[in-house]
Backbone:
């Protein structure tokens, strides 16, 4: 692989800073006092076997820990503080584990000597409970070492669940049936969780599950763990997990879940002549566990009415934007469809990829049911996900409805992966179909993952390699291939990546926004932890990216220096300096119709970011950047504000403005949004989203009422409105476009 370019040609400031960073990489780290432990945490693997109880003795889930079952339960008390430093915790944590034939029961007694300071501000179901004093209970039932299920509960008993994927950000939109309750007591807080075995897929023949238990003592900015006592190990990963053993002879029922939903929707198109439409929208999801570790799902007339609005984006570049998946149906079991490991992610917290866009991804679920930005009805679909004979399998086929002159389409994807020992994984993927119906399109690929939790006696290293081939009836055959290797330590982290995407590589069910390129990138980061004073750590690093076309002509060169620090209250401050050159071979337009002509442009700049602690009831994120921009300049200010005065009210507002001045003219790009959540109880909330931007002049509003009458039954009420505001006078320029309303009742029947 050709070497990465040196930052020659950049600014004098950039070269001076680069020299300073290289010198600091060899500086001695600050000495932080560490306690002596009897344990060797590099090999430490705690194990636990929950106590078996009779179903008649099952605890009532009220958060009180006063049932007889907890006196019989297995108790975990050996926890260690990991953040801000590895030490014995100064408060006790007790976790109780028991199970009967139907459920796994978890009790928590989180002692605290500052009860009056406990953060307990989240009451919302699926809210950001990680901002509060809380407990994470994460299990890896297939013992993969990389993926599993996460269950979060805070001091009030508010709960949220998530899919934990292979070294990727967790999927918070995942939902399953479980319950929790909690309360603050005179010497801390207590909570109870019940997780039905029917809500999980797992291998009944395995010798145990991976288990991570983490207490977040947010008001003290402390992280306390049961396993993986290492600051370089991701709290959402299972590479150094403990073991949950001895769960046998459980009742899985018949493995049949039937979710029935009935909704009434009303729509009004405000354009003349007005068009009103009211209709009944029934839907169903029928899941059957073919085996305890393999689930088949049939969906009929799939309902996405409760999907939140996409975060508003305005394109100020020359490549298409990426919007992440937010629909529950496609997020369920999403880990089984992962391909390419880290090559299609941003990387770790300390070593970020230069772009957050997964260019070249073979399967992107938003291609199903969304065509040219417009929703298309999914009439039905079949999904298969789970493990069989040592193979992880994900398969999906869906039939879409007619829309926008497009006939119904059948779209399919299949993914199979298997572990070769605990360090190697190989897999294949295949997709077929084109949502637009314009082509006959197929993609096939293979990937390989190697990881070790202790590389050369240090921290985790992972390498991913992939190869993909697309076949299109209009563009022929072409390929994409690449690799990424990351070393993720606390003190030192780094990564290198190469990717080539052919000119005609065209996965119709994937995502490509920059074909015909070779991308070389690298990053390195050094973190130095400090003592118990105001600073927790400071860090610095470099990131480099070099992109050419397939003839070797440079299109993009970007070198970046990044320095930052975190206070002991977990406030973050980051400064980055960039040396960037963009070579434009085809003119493109900025917002406002400003044309950037062919040429070579130096887009050097600087960005300053401040992120206040995420654990406070209030906070902000501020970003200020300035850069040379295609022969002119760009100045951007972005702000996010959070205010949560109590557990029942959650207010968030954001505003950004980017002032662009190029030879073709000037334009200001402004985006604003306001989100509110009002929690009447842990099971009943009212939320709203409002967004506006001055380029499309589009105002969007979406209000929702979510009421979980019980874990199996939910009532949803939604109201959406879209409008155009093209002038400064709101009253005279407000023009309604569309209004929609829905009321839907759903229930899950388990057999």
Residues:
């Amino acid at each position: 692989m050709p070497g990465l370019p040196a930052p020659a040609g950049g600014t004098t400031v950039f070269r001076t800073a680069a020299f300073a960073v290289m010198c600091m990489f060899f500086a001695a780290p600050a000495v932080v006092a560490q306690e002596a432990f009897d344990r060797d945490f590099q090999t430490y693997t705690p194990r636990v076997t929950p106590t078996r109880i009779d179903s008649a003795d099952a605890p009532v889930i009220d958060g009180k820990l006063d049932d007889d079952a907890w006196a019989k339960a297995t108790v975990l008390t050996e926890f260690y503080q990991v953040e801000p430093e590895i030490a014995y915790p100064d408060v006790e944590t007790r976790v109780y584990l028991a199970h009967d034939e139907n459920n796994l029961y978890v009790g928590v007694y989180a002692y605290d000597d500052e009860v009056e300071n406990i953060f307990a501000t989240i009451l919302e179901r699926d809210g950001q409970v990680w901002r509060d004093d809380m407990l994470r209970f994460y299990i890896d039932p297939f013992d993969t070492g990389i993926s599993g299920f996460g269950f979060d509960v805070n001091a009030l008993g508010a709960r949220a669940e998530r899919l934990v994927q292979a070294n990727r950000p967790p999927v918070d939109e995942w939902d399953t049936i479980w319950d929790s309750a909690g309360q603050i007591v005179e010497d801390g807080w207590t909570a109870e969780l019940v997780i039905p075995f029917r809500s999980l897929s797992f291998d009944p023949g395995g010798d145990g599950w991976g288990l991570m238990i983490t207490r977040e003592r947010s008001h003290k900015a402390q992280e306390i763990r049961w396993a993986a006592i290492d600051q370089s190990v991701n709290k959402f990963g299972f590479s150094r997990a403990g073991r949950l053993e001895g769960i046998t002879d459980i009742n899985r029922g018949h493995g049949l879940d039937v979710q029935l939903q009935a909704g009434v929707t009303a729509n009004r198109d405000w354009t003349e002549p007005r068009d009103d439409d009211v209709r009944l929208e029934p839907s169903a999801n029928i899941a059957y566990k073919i085996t305890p570790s393999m689930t088949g799902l049939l969906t009929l007339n799939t309902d996405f009415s409760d999907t939140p609005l996409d975060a508003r984006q305005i394109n100020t570049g020359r490549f298409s934007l990426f919007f992440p998946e937010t629909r529950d149906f496609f997020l369920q079991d999403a880990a089984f469809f992962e391909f390419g490991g880290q090559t299609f992610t941003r990387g770790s917290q300390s070593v970020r990829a230069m772009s957050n866009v997964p260019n070249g991804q073979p399967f992107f679920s938003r291609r199903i049911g969304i065509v040219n930005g417009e929703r298309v009805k999914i009439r039905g679909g079949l999904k298969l996900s789970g493990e069989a004979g040592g193979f992880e399998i994900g398969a999906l086929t869906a039939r879409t409805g007619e829309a926008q002159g497009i006939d119904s389409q059948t779209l399919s994807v299949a993914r199979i992966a298997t572990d070769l020992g605990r360090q190697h994984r190989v897999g294949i993927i295949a997709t077929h179909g084109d949502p637009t119906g314009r082509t006959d399109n197929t993609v096939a690929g293979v990937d390989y993952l190697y990881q070790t939790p202790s590389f050369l006696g240090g921290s985790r290293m992972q390498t991913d390699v992939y190869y993909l081939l697309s076949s299109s009836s209009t563009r022929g055959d072409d390929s994409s291939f690449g690799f990424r290797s990351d070393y993720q330590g606390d003190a030192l982290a780094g990564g290198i990546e190469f990717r080539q995407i052919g000119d005609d590589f065209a996965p119709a069910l994937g995502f490509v926004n920059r074909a015909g390129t070779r991308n070389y990138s690298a990053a390195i980061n050094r973190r130095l932890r400090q003592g118990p004073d105001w600073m927790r750590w400071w860090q610095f690093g470099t990131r480099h990216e070099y992109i050419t076309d397939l003839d070797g002509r440079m299109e993009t060169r970007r070198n970046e220096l990044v320095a930052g620090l975190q206070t002991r209250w977990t406030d973050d401050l980051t400064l980055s300096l960039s040396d960037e050159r963009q070579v434009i071979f085809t003119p493109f337009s900025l917002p406002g119709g400003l044309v950037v002509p062919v040429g070579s442009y130096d887009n050097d700049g600087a960005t300053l970011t401040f992120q206040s602690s995420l654990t406070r009831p209030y906070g902000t994120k501020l970003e200020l950047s300035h850069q040379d921009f295609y022969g002119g300049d760009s100045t951007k200010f972005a702000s996010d504000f959070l205010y949560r005065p109590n557990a029942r009210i959650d207010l968030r507002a954001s505003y950004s403005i980017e002032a662009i001045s190029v030879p073709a003219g000037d334009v200001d790009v402004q985006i604003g949004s306001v989100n509110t959540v009002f929690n009447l109880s842990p099971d009943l909330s009212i939320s709203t989203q409002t967004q506006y931007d001055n380029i499309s002049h589009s105002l969007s509003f979406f209000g929702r009422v979510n009421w979980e009458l019980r874990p199996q039954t939910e009532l949803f009420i939604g109201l959406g409105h879209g409008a155009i505001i093209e002038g400064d006078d709101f009253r005279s320029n407000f023009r309604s476009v569309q209004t929609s309303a829905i009321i839907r009742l759903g229930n899950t029947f388990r057999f």
User: Anything to note?
Assistant: Residues 47-244 form a domain with the Immunoglobulin-like fold (CATH 2.60.40.1190). The two ends are 56 Å apart (CA to CA). The first helix runs from residue 12 to 24.
